[in-house]
Amino acid sequence: MKEDNNSFRILEIYASQEAYQHHIQTAHFQKYKQGTLHMVKSLKLQDLTPLDRETMKSIFKRMK
Prior knowledge:
Elements: H1 17-24, H2 27-36, H3 53-59
């Protein structure tokens, strides 16, 4: 963050609410969450609406 170089933001994008719920139940996420509890001063989740849904679909398209 320009105004506070001791802070940073993490942006994660999920294909759906179901994908997010699945992710937060995984072992690697639970390990990360427990390991960083002492570092997180605040947490605010933002539910956003994409401006271009078609582009978002292509971002999350599974590769074969």
